[in-house]
Amino acid sequence: MEMPIIRTMKRRRLREDLRKRRRMRPGEADMLTTSFEQWIRDKTQFTMGEVCDGADLPEQVPDALCLYHTAKLQISNLGSLMPYGNANRIVGEMCRELPVREWKTPVFAGVCGTDPFCLLEPLLQELICNGVYGIQNFPTVGLADGVFRYNLEAISLGFRREVEIMKTARQMGLAIFPFVFNQVEALTMAETGPAAMIYHLGVLQHFHAERQEPPAKPYLERIRSISTLLRKEYPRIRLFVYARVEALSHIIEKAMEDGRVDIDGIYTSCRVKGGGRQV
Amino acid sequence: MNKNAVLNRLKSRGNHIFGMTLGTGIYYKYAVLNDVDLAFLISASRFRQMGMNSLAATMPYGNANDIVLDFAVREILPQRPKIPLIFGLCATDPTVDLRSYIARLKELNFSGICNIPSVIIVDGGLSAMLEAEGISYQKEIQAIRIAHEMDLFTVAMVQDAEQAGGMIEAGCDAVCVHFGAAKGGVLGAKLEVTQRDAVKAATQIYEQCDSCGRKIIKLFYGGPAKTPPSVHYIKENTRADGFVGGYSIERLIVEANMQKGLLRYTFLGAEEQEGRQRAEKIDYVEFTKEYIEQNYKDHITANQIAAKLHISRSYFSALVSKELGEPFQEYLITYRMEKASNLLMNTLLSVGEIAEMVGYRDYAHFSKSFKKKMKISPAAYRKQYKNT
Questions:
Q1: Interchain proximity A148–B124, CB inside 8 Å
Q2: What does each C-alpha distance from A20 to A15, A23, A131 come to in angstroms?
Q3: CA neighbours within 13 Å on the CB side: how many for A263?
Q4: Read out DSSP for B161-221?
Q5: From CA B35, how far away is CA A177, in angstroms rounded?
Q6: What residues of chain B lie within 8 A of the CB of A147, using their CB?
Q7: pLDDT for B148-166, tens place per residue?
Q8: How does DSSP assign B38-87, residue by residue?
Q9: Which chain B residue's Cα is nearest to A118?
Q10: Residues 75-134 of A with CB under 8 A from B
Q11: B122 vs A73, A112, A144: nearest CB
């Protein structure tokens, strides 16, 4: 097992270095020198492009790119929690192999915060050194439910750990754009002070676009309850909603425009070929 | 060791098969020393040695197959396989081609495979969605089928009769009921099935095995099957041929001895006492089971045991019924009747004598309880099931 080459430096120096380097990037948009808070402020649509080989070109240009270990393993994101590889090591490798620094679009990395066999600070430092803009909690235990999830929480491989790593990442100067799955998780995650977070509607979305009366109501209900809660407690955090099913995503978007749900935007994802050289 | 040798070996053990999961070389040494029937090389075991609960084996902290192959090749295979080695194969792994991988395992002298880590550990919505994505139990069945075709010994981990049906159809040699996560100890999870539900589930699955027309070896693993008394209980109440020890081995042997051993090195008496109290708290239920096993011949009451443990009667009752899945009194009667039916079958003692041996002074009372439990009178039971 090879140790990642990391530059050890004090956090403040690291932050300064990060700021300097961002300014120095070739062909840099102004956006990267501004903070995530400013950048995300007026977005109502956020498209994340998952970097992977062999994907079709996306219809819309993604706002940011992300590196997930599932892309390298060529499995669906739902399989992210399965024991097919060391998620954090794979993401670290991807950052090293891909010319992340040269891309004009900011790059997020999916960090597995629950991994008990990984020192996460060195990993984050390595990500920063390789030009990563921010992190997301991926793979996340939020995807799991039932007895499996209960036991994961019981043996301290739970969502708490992911929150802690987000906190550390923010202190180190990385942008964080976390997924949350319910009210409790939203509240704990909000404590880390993210500029925005994504409410993931969960894995189970039995939803058919062909149906005349789509069962979107319960989802809108859930979104409403979470947004009221967040608006009350943390009005500064921008709330995005992610639905895996496209049809549902459209309905939510409409509801947002009509003002039926009080959210800031819709989060979507697409796959981007070979590292997004075209963006 | 080839498949026939393994089968003959297991046949000679009757229904006392003992399999053991292991993740390091030293465990293998002890398995050989004690002539354990089957050695399961699984990633969960490795994770336990690394200080994590076995659930970590179903998380993206490493490639399960690589982990097993790595320690097998370095720590176990060089010691020459003297007992059957079963490889815990993660069949849904997208990075391996099952056919060539299993062929390679055979070349490396593995006697067989077992589908663990398995998707059966994942439940709820995620499990349903994974299935839709092709990460399903079907792939594990396919792995067993391929291994069967290559003449490897195959153990199928199952959680219900339907899965068992699929595995039997694929040609598995042994079915092992996976009771899920285990509770207690330093690494333990929180939710586990009760002993009673475990017996119920196993009974159903074993029925499926027995009705298929060929001999299937029936094993169980995990969950409440973690101490000798509980393993004994499940074995007595089902038609299992044997048991596979996982966390039970680590918990019982390593954790307990580590704690005891370390306490002997800490000189401060106060700390020793504190440590002992802590250890006792974990083991109230185990103590109860052992106490019943040793004293079922005498009069036992919940008050007695509660007094011995220095806890209140009500706390004791609540704890026991939660852990065992039935009230204390009910558990005691089940245990005694199990013993009595054994004696009825295998000895010529009179029913009155047997009643006394299992702690009933009053024959009528015994007979009544027996009838209630077994739905048949003791005398009729003997007539029907007598062995000689």
A1: yes
A2: 9, 5, 12
A3: 31
A4: HHHHHHHHHHT-SEEEEE----B-TTT-BS----HHHHHHHHHHHHHHHHTTSS--EEEEE
A5: 54
A6: 123-124, 180-181, 191
A7: 999 999 999 999 999 999 9
A8: EEEE-HHHHHHHTTS-GGGGGSSEEEHHHHHHHHIIIIIGGG---S-EEE
A9: B61
A10: 75-76, 78-87, 112, 114-118
A11: A144
Measured between CA atoms, how close is B123 to chain A, in angstroms? 6
pLDDT for residue A91: 94
Nearest residue to A66 (alpha-carbon basis) of A5, A22, A127 = A127
Residue spans of alpha helices (H) in chain A: 11-24, 36-40, 69-73, 87-97, 120-129, 146-154, 159-171, 183-190, 217-233, 246-257
Largest CA distance in chain A: 59
Q: What is the pTM of this model?
A: 0.76
CB burial class (10 A; 0-12, 13-18, 19+) of residue B197? middle
Q: Whole-angstrom Cα distance, residue A247 to residue A27?
A: 37
Residue B214 C-alpha, separation from nearest chain A C-alpha, in angstroms: 34
Sequence-distant (≥ 6) Cβ neighbours of residue A188 within 8 angstroms: A159, A160, A163
The pLDDT tens digits of the residues spanning B60-87 come to 999 999 999 999 999 999 988 889 999 9
Cβ B58–A82 below 8 Å, yes or no?
yes
Beta-sheet pairing, B61-63 with A84-86? antiparallel
pLDDT in tens, chain A (279 residues): 444 444 444 555 656 655 555 544 433 443 444 578 888 888 889 989 888 876 665 666 788 999 999 988 888 888 899 999 999 999 999 999 888 888 878 899 999 999 999 998 999 999 999 989 999 999 999 999 888 888 898 888 999 999 999 999 998 889 999 999 999 999 999 999 899 999 998 876 665 545 555 578 888 999 999 999 999 989 999 999 998 888 888 889 999 999 899 999 999 988 887 544 444
Residue B185 has pLDDT above 60, yes or no: no
Spell out the residues 6+ positions from residue B41 whose beta carbon is closer than 8 angstroms to its own.
B21, B22, B23, B68, B71, B72, B76, B85, B86, B87, B88
* Average pLDDT of the segment spanning B346-353: 82
Q: Which of B328, B371, B335 is nearest to B351 (CA)?
A: B371
Tell me which residue has tokens 């300097």: A20
CA gap B25, B78 in Å, rounded: 10
- Encoded amino acid at A276, one letter: G
Count how many Cα atoms sit within 13 Å of the Cα of residue A143 in the half-sphere of its side chain.
Answer: 24
Minimum distance, in Å, between the CA of residue A107 and any CA atom of chain B: 22
Positive/negative CA dihedral, A32, A178, A83, B172: negative
Q: Which pLDDT does position A209 carry in this prediction?
A: 47
Residue B156 bridge partners (DSSP): B175
Indicate if ipTM > 0.85.
no
DSSP single-letter state for residue A115? -
Q: How many residues does chain B have?
A: 388
Taking CB atoms and an 8 Å limit, are B126 and A112 in contact across chains?
Answer: no
**Whether the Cβ atoms of residue B86 and residue B113 lie closer than 8 Å to each other:** yes
pLDDT score at B296: 83
Residues belonging to chain B with any Cβ–Cβ distance to chain A shorter than 8 Å: 43, 50-53, 55-64, 90, 92-95, 117, 119, 121-130, 133, 135, 180-181, 187-191
